[in-house]
Amino acid sequence: MIRSELLQALAKENPELRAEDVELAVDTFFEQIAERLADGGRVELRGFGAFSTREREARKGRNPRTGEAVSVPDKRVPYFKPGKEMRARLNVT
Question: What integer is the mean pLDDT of 17-26?
Answer without folding.
Answer: 96
